[in-house]
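PROTEIN–LIGAND DATA SHEET

This sheet pairs a single protein chain with one bound small molecule, SN-glycerol-3-phosphate, given as SMILES. Inputs appear in the order they were entered. The predicted three-dimensional arrangement of chain and ligand is reported afterwards as a token string under its own label.
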Amino acid sequence: MSNTGILSIDQGTTSSRAIVFALNGHQIANAQQEFTQHYPANGWVEHDVEEIWSTTLDSCKTVISQATNKGVDIACIGITNQRETTVVWNKDTGKAIHPAIVWQDRRTAGYCESIKDREAMVNSKTGLLLDPYFSASKIKWILDEVQGARRLAIKGKLAFGTIDSFLIWRLTNGKAHVTDATNASRTNLFNIHTQQWDEDLLTLFDIPPCILPEVLDCAAEFGTCDPSILGKDYRITGVAGDQQAALVGQSCFSPGDLKSTYGTGCFALLNTGDTPVSSSHKLLTTVGYRLNGKTTYALEGAIFTAGANIQWLRDGIGVLQHAKQSQVLAESLDYDHGVFLVPGFAGLGAPHWNPNARASLFGMTRATGPAHFARAALEAVCYQSHELQTAMRKDGVSSNNVWVDGGMVANDWLCQFLCDILQVEVQRPKIMESTALGAAFLAGLQAGIYESLDEISAVKTVDRVFIPELGDKTRQRLLKKWALAVKATLAFAE
Ligand SMILES: Nc1ncnc2c1ncn2[C@@H]1O[C@H](COP(=O)(O)OP(=O)(O)O)[C@@H](O)[C@H]1O
Ligand SMILES: O=P(O)(O)OC[C@H](O)CO
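PREDICTION REPORTED AS:
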């Protein structure tokens, strides 16, 4: 067993990654490729499906070859993915009929608003809100706008899938059209109580059931890779949406366990056990994971842009050369630097859910420079995390600590400020690739490599625990200013 590895595919919003993990969670091989973000119109975000495929495939081939050279046998494959992003493809050709519509895309805001009176029904079945973020309105848009699509769909010629589903279709050479319960739970079409696609929702969004994938547990037999693709008939045995995979990767298996992932966006998920906790503060009730037919639920707060704020500073306006520069710049200022960024680049998520909000900067003077931009961009993510923590507490659930992961938490300054604002311990694991690790764990469970969740929990090790240091007076003053900035941003969106 010591030369056994698990290949994890992590298809994220900005990059495709493949990692081969040893059974103790250490990385044997790692490859990553960024791909292009397309912004064809105001509020639209698309990905080229072929670029998603080629970057995923190249990353997999690289790590398989590295692992093989080290004498490691890959036992199985786990897949985790950016959630909600919608692909509709032709089953005969395997080609997408439209670019992938990314979770951040707001093009269907008007349509969602037009059926807002149905939100209570949608929320009671799916645990979600009626928002362009989720897949259903994106599928409807493709079926309505791509010429001939609806006719082909009704004839059974088209397939819908989130990225996991699309990748499995390609890897199995069209033999499997499947997804897992976590990804299904993000579509606005899946009833989280019955664990089935829901007829009322399919009718509401006018989506023919024949285009939907079969929904499996997170540890299951998703299909076998066609040997022509990766060189062997690897079994795909674990799948979860990236935020849920991070919940598993961080071993948040008990009710009250909380993880927060700081990647392109930030997503806080709190394990609520076998109870789907319904929120009165616009948090989402979602499937945390489903194993052996048993569903564990989670309460989720979604912030649409986190690392994306830093990307904007780097790629959008050239204020930074590298993301990690943001730490040195942030450290150069004191708490009362006075600049606030409300990063509504893709609208505001929880707890506001305003798709029309846009990013706003407050408090600039002639002394404002790159350091202020960087610090305000990092601080915003922490203030927004505080909004999620407050909403969770109001909903009657909370946690005394938070496990963090994702690209941003390499930034020590961010972790300390987060901890100061939340006033709870922030714990950073040694293996920060929790998302990919979670998918590997799920695959390993199904393949019989891990016997139980306890065995998986034993793999986790802490890198650093951040302890609150900031005085409450300063903290309260900053939070008050932040609240004013959000209020003004929301007023501007009206
Ligand atoms: N040292 C850093 N400080 C702040 N942000 C960072 C740092 N390093 C990376 N990031 C941000 O983290 C994000 C990448 O994280 P990752 O977890 O790989 O994202 P995703 O899975 O969404 O593609 C990028 O948006 C980048 O701007
Ligand atoms: O690609 P990430 O890590 O920002 O995650 C995206 C989320 O899954 C969207 O819901």
